[in-house]
Write a structure and sequence with these properties.
The structure is a homodimer of 319-residue chains.
Chain A (H helix, E strand, L loop, with lengths): L1 E5 L5 H14 L2 E5 L14 E3 L3 H6 L5 E3 L20 E3 L6 H16 L2 H9 L16 E5 L3 H10 L6 E6 L11 E4 L3 H4 L5 E4 L13 H6 L4 E5 L8 H9 L3 E6 L19 E3 L10 H19 L15
Parallel strand pairs in A: 1-2, 1-3, 3-4, 4-5, 6-7, 6-9, 7-8, 9-10, 10-11, 11-12
Helix pairs in contact in A: 1-9, 3-5
């Protein structure tokens, strides 16, 4: 059994952990920092850990790919795997800490107008006092109540918002930080009562353009949106219109329909839009990498013992 | 009994509340938006609500001034009051929500390098992935455990930091969000174990330059500082050196020795320094104004009934 680990983020402690698990699993492991580095004797590799799109689409020997990402929509595209039976697992559950902090940071930057202060300070300008909003005054809706939505809710709770409600496919989530849960079908009922909408949905056909122009307009004047899930979930043009008209007080996007955001996108010039380059769940926080590696090692032992993978993706659901 | 209310922030609901309290207190009240607007028949005014420095320094009739600020150091300067016996109260206790959100926003902006992403986005640039830090990995020290420090700690707790310790004059605070309390004399013991230092001290002779060059150097390499108290508390030149040398990973200042920050200050060009123009506790959040007005009305009834003022400042302590 041969494993390729393709990553530029691992530290010594992670390499050691994976080597130990490989030994237990009776597997041979090879670490590469580029997909072109696969050595000759690993051409029959069975397991890959990493976002190895080239290996996945060319190596028929592959039987399991574990992505260190939470969102694996790019692995669901036809032709992504040379071996159609290849198992796919993800690392959903490791990004909550990082992305929750990002959401809180972006929401507060917008509400407190720190973006404007900061832009002025770059020009050595002492800006004026401006109207600020507070999380404490918000009715928060989490569209998506997976690890990210739940971890965010646990942080947001401490700010004593008016309420936090969750919206998910099942309409069920036993996390006590949600005051109420709704099904996706009830989204139109929830939006008019939402001051801060936090979107952490996976990229699936079901979530594509879920935030339509009509739905953006259902939100109260002066409300805020943060999207850390997938850019495909929002009608970007409608969002830009709602920001430029002042209907929305602000939006923060870490994800976009096309990434990097094209130079000719109108979003660069949209007022009160906070753009970050898909960094909310980047792989620099030790929490994230530690947890990712833990999850892979756990499933490696499952795989070696012919047990089901704990973190296998449901290709029908898309997450 | 005549009252002047000097404010540009009050809404109808606040005016009504003050008028009702004045009626109960048997007082006549006049609302002005400029200190020059005092009408002839209020030249013998007894009570002022507002930061009315001119009225305080010229009207001998004044017997009580209530400042809507928490920090009242400017009212302690010799000559601030024409009547030296004038009572002084402040509004410490109303700024916690606003300033705590500001601290969290600034800490996360620095740790997650969103400042850099944002500066790039202003130039339509999709920035690189950068190393991020997390509140979860921080040992947090609150230098100052009044309303601001405590409200911050209650929000920070949800991020599951390694610990939160408080440092105060008495070394005592029964807030359960502090894992441990220290006296100011023990500051040098705490700083080497501090990853995020949150300063919310009043401006007094005791707190002036409390964060010396030596103390900044006691902090671990890669640590962060947020100051929302008074600019006088930090050796600004030493702070700039520690940032430019990379000893500190970041600092966020909302307050400065001289405000507005002078054009020739080296702080404008200091790397990893986040400057905001004294807006952490501005008077736009309804929470803050509501609470301010409530506190004044409470003390107005106390005053009318010859009871001690609940929010009177201890001029010896300076807060």
């Amino acid at each position: 059994m041969k494993i390729i680990v393709y990553s530029t983020s691992l530290e010594d402690v992670h390499v050691k952990k994976i080597e130990d698990a490989a030994t237990k699993a009776g597997a041979k492991v090879c670490f590469v920092k580029s997909e072109d580095e696969v050595p000759e004797d690993f051409k029959d590799v069975e397991i890959v850990y990493g976002n190895a799109f080239n290996i996945a689409s060319t190596y028929k020997s592959l039987r399991w790919l574990c992505s260190p990402n939470a969102g694996i929509d790019k692995f669901l595209i036809p032709g992504a795997f040379a071996n159609k039976e290849c198992k796919l697992s993800n690392s959903s559950g490791s990004y909550g800490v990082s992305i929750a902090e990002h959401i809180i940071a972006q929401a507060l930057m917008m509400m407190r107008k720190i973006t404007l202060c900061y832009a002025e300070s770059l020009n050595h300008k002492w800006g004026p006092q401006r109207h600020q909003d507070s999380i404490k005054d918000c009715r928060i809706t989490c569209l998506g109540t997976g690890d990210i939505g739940r971890t965010f809710a646990s942080r947001a709770k401490g700010f004593l918002p008016k309420n936090i409600v969750g919206v998910s496919r099942s309409g069920k989530c036993d996390d006590k930080n949600f005051d109420k849960m709704y099904k996706i079908e009830d989204l139109d009922k929830v939006l008019p009562e939402t001051d801060l909408l936090v979107m952490s949905l996976p990229g699936t056909p079901e979530t594509e353009n879920i935030l339509t122009r009509e739905r953006i307009n259902l939100m109260p004047r002066g409300s805020y949106i943060v999207n850390v899930g997938r850019g495909s979930a929002i009608d970007e043009d409608a969002l830009a219109d709602a920001l430029d008209s002042g209907h929305l007080a602000g939006a923060a996007l870490d994800v976009f329909k096309v990434e990097p955001l094209p130079q000719d996108s109108r979003l660069w010039n949209t007022q009160n839009l906070l753009i970050t380059p898909h960094v909310a769940g980047n792989l620099t926080l030790l929490h994230t990498i530690n947890r990712n590696v833990e999850m892979f090692c756990e499933d490696l032992i499952n795989y070696a013992n012919n047990r089901p993978l704990k973190y296998e993706v449901d290709r029908n659901k898309g997450y």
